[in-house]
């Protein structure tokens, strides 16, 4: 780079950067719905397909009482939760991963949560979620109806200090 080019580059770097208007302040922008249990969001652009249920979303939330791992499927599926060494294994029976991106690992180690990592694997006709825990935690699964005919399986994790104190 020449001296002139470096000077021009430095001058451009000093100019203020135009910041986008926050979504809440923009006009004629539909509200954004996040994919969470109890919410109205779904990554599906159309109604769920018939046939084998599909996993369309894997999510994580930090809650007041610990943390939450949830999955959204296109239809009701049977769930099995087992304690494993260093975590919990969750199996969604007769379910397929909707798209490859839905099988990416969620790295949650930087949150104040007993959940450290969530890995999603297709295992023949089932999906296996390997949930690694940094500390022992009690898991409580429950099912909820989702938007547009989808279903959520929600697994709440209470940290070991709340498990020991009973609340």
Structural topology:
Elements: H1 3-14, E1 54-63, E2 66-73, E3 79-84, E4 87-92, E5 96-97, E6 106-107, E7 115-123, E8 126-133, E9 137-145, E10 151-159, H2 160-165
Q: Mean pLDDT, nearest integer? A: 78
Could you say which structural class the secondary elements and strand pairing correspond to? mainly beta
SSE pattern, N- to C-terminal: HEEEEEEEEEEH
Arrangement of strands in the largest sheet: 5-1-2-10-9
Question: How big a fraction of the residues is strand?
Answer: 35-45%
Keywords:
167 residues; globular; single chain; 5-stranded antiparallel β-sheet; mainly beta; 5-stranded mixed β-sheet; 11% helix; 2 helices
Care to describe what's here?
By secondary structure, this protein is mostly beta strands. It is 11% helix and 41% strand.
Concise synopsis of the structure shown:
This protein is mainly β. Helices cover 11% and strands 41% of the residues.
